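Could you please review the protein record set out just below?
***
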Amino acid sequence: MYEEMEEEFQQFLIDMEEAENAMVFAQYMDEDDYEDDYGNNEIYECQEKFKKKVRDWLRENKPGRYIVTGGYNVSVMTLDEARKD
């Protein structure tokens, strides 16, 4: 599962680079993509590690511009997007 998490993180980095400050909303580590191969606890643990890794990157590279949330997946969005109904 670590490899999958790293692939998702690389996709996050690509998304952030390609968006050039225009990325508004994206989802990663969707539970449905992994539940056939991994248990829910393992998926949850990797989602938590992924969220920490993304938050650390955002804190260093784009402070105060994005939030990271979790649930069935990990969502990254701008503050404005988070405030929408």
Remarks:
- Strands lie at 25-28, 66-70, 74-78.
